[in-house]
Design brief:
The chain is α+β, with helices and mostly antiparallel strands and 236 residues long. The chain contains 6 helices and 14 strands. It is globular and about 50 Å long. It binds thymidine-5'-phosphate (TMP).
């Protein structure tokens, strides 16, 4: 499969068409952004690390019965993926309070939540990805029905259970993460986009060290060292 015309360039990935209208190639970029691109950076090799991490995690989820857009990794920073219509809702699942949750509600940073909290955000940079409730999603036609919203929540929780257990064995707390879903040409909801330290928060269980994009957001150290550590543990 070879890259044809560029279909879409996002903040962290570029999508290309292929000879097959149902398949795309996703290229993981080295660019980093925070605060909806208010802060920008570039770390050579970050795209390769995220491509490898995300491929491993999508394969793990597939093994546990989660349908994803991943066909296979083509090389270090390219994946072959199924073409889907992206649902414009970012599904965030939280196990520990931090980030925007603490800012918005005043919950103390680091509080272990009594259950996995699932939130929806509107995938719209121009509006700074505002939080949505179920009625907003229906009113805005972001999904076809309430049962799709139920399915997004179920999938978010299921993905969380699988990943949380996987990372506990690797001495990492999965603090929170964001996932995106798309609809394929048969109407199936597939996990899409990526799961990587760009889209998750990981805290070392022994040292509490942050090993995710907060290293970049908060200038805590070397981004690539942190992401490499996540890859090493994923491959353990
Ligand atoms: P938040 O605390 O900033 O709302 O982020 C929650 C989690 O979701 C965190 O792991 C980062 C991830 N996330 C993204 O990857 N992209 C986004 O646009 C948003 C809002 C969150």
């Amino acid at each position: 499969m070879i890259k044809q015309e560029l279909l879409h360039e996002g903040k962290a990935k570029v999508l290309y068409k292929t000879q097959d209208k149902n398949l795309l190639i996703s290229e993981f970029k080295d660019d980093l952004t925070a605060g909806n691109a208010a802060k920008k950076g570039n770390e050579k090799g970050k795209g390769i690390l995220n491509c490898k991490i995300s491929t491993q995690l999508f394969e793990l989820l597939e093994k546990h019965g989660i349908k994803t857009h991943l066909v296979k990794m083509l090389n270090d920073n390219h994946q072959l993926i199924k073409k889907v219509d992206i649902i414009m809702i970012e599904v965030v699942v939280r196990n520990i309070a931090t980030g925007s949750l603490t800012k918005r509600l005043g919950v103390e940073d680091g509080t272990v939540l009594p259950f996995a909290l699932v939130e929806f955000y509107y995938k719209e940079d121009a509006l700074n990805d505002p939080i949505l409730n179920d009625e907003h999603c229906i009113m805005m036609d972001l999904v076809k029905s309430e049962s799709d919203l139920k399915e997004l929540k179920r999938l978010g929780r299921e993905i969380n259970s699988i990943l949380k257990m996987f990372f506990v064995k690797r001495r990492l707390n999965l603090v929170d993460f964001k996932v995106e879903f798309g609809v394929d040409n048969r109407g199936n909801i597939l996990l899409a986009d990526e799961i990587s330290p760009d889209s998750c928060r990981f805290w070392d269980m022994d040292t509490n060290e942050k090993l995710d994009k907060d290293v970049f957001r908060q200038n805590l150290g070397n981004v690539k060292v942190a992401y490499q550590e996540i890859l090493n543990r994923v491959l353990k």
